[in-house]
Amino acid sequence: MYNLARSLLFKLDPEVSHELSLDLLAASSRLGLNKLLGGLPSTKPVDVMGLRFPNAVGLAAGLDKNADAFEALGALGFGFVEVGTVTPKGQAGNPKPRLFRLPEHEAIINRMGFNNKGIDHLVSRIKSHRYPGILGVNIGKNLTTSVEEAAADYLACLTSVIPYADYITANISSPNTPGLRSLQFGESLAQLIAPLIEARDRYEAEQGKRVPLAVKIAPDMTDDEIKLVSDTLVEQGVDGIIATNTTLSRDAVIGHQFEEEAGGLSGAPVRDASTHVVKVLAEHLKGTLPIIGVGGISSGLDAVEKLQAGASLVQIYTGFIYQGPELIKEAIASTDAYYRERDLGI
């Protein structure tokens, strides 16, 4: 069924197809049909960042930027859904065209530029949700906000969503907002994260609820840079690291008609680079912080590979676009089996 739907949707402009798919998912959810398409309920919850995830497979940020369809997406079987990236003010994003399919590589190039309806809209969508899984909110800065003033945008988003989110992710690694990736390093990173940690701790003290803060990093770093970034995040007191965002590398798609298109490359071509980052983080952190692995997961084996490299959870996005709900079911079955066997010492 999904292959037929995909063949029709892929005849449309990628952005039109994206919006239509979200509308269809929301409609099917209202009719109670999504559970018939998606993964089976997990028998192996996973405890990460002080939260109990129904299963280890989540939807990465970017698919549902405005939280307009997260309950429908969650009904497909995801143990957690991350909405956003959201910014304080709504913004149009980069000029079109800005989204390109590379089906030969099961990949996507995007330069969306944090297009979203703004924090107020997203809060209106999540404040009374019924999704039983874990809900994450991915936050960023507006294009018109300078890098030097970025912390204020992240803080505004965090304080708005913290009463309603199960966890929050600071996206400092999108390649499509000028200067954003510079926030991953040194004093810039510390100055960005410190007020977010303070707000997280203040909310916990006042409300008795801890809302974990994760940070999403890029795959385009050397091993030494990965270690330096992770050291800063540990020092600042974040709760987890999401590895990784899209890549600027085009090595895996040389010769493709879209090779020269600007933006981040996701899907199968980023799998190995993402898994390498997970492995470097895990070996360096030695369990100090949990890792959520994302990038190039197109099968249950790919999901398990991320866990074997050191991730505790995984997220999918591009693989879901190409393979549909069956990938969710396969990834859940594979990661559940991995955790059951690990617990038994197999």
Write structural notes for this entry.
- With about 350 residues, the chain is α/β, with parallel strands linked by helices.
- It has one domain: Alpha-Beta Barrel (TIM Barrel), CATH 3.20.20.70.
- It is built from twelve helices and 15 strands.
- The strands form four sheets. Strands 3-4-9-10-11-12-14-15 form an eight-stranded parallel β-barrel, surrounded by five helices. Strands 6-7-13 form a three-stranded antiparallel β-sheet, with no helix packed on it. Strands 1-2 form a two-stranded antiparallel ribbon.
- α8 links the parallel β11 and β12.
- α6 packs parallel to α7, α7 packs parallel to α8 and α10 crosses α12.
- The longest helix is centred in the middle third of the chain and has 22 residues.
- The protein is globular and about 50 Å long.
- The mean pLDDT is about 90.
- It is a peripheral membrane protein.
- Monomer.
- It is found in: Cell membrane.
- Its cofactor is FMN.
- Pfam families: DHO_dh.
Number of alpha- plus pi-helical segments: 12
Number of strands: 15
CATH homology superfamily name = Aldolase class I
Strand content: 15-25%
* CATH class division: Alpha Beta
Structural class assignment: alpha/beta
CATH architecture: Alpha-Beta Barrel
Averaged pLDDT: 91
Q: What profile does the largest beta sheet have?
A: 8 strands, parallel, barrel
InterPro entries: Aldolase_TIM, DHO_dehydrogenase, Dihydroorotate_DH_1_2, Dihydroorotate_DH_2, Dihydroorotate_DH_cat, Dihydroorotate_DH_CS
Organism: Marinomonas ushuaiensis DSM 15871
Cofactor: FMN
Domain Dihydroorotate dehydrogenase catalytic: 46-330
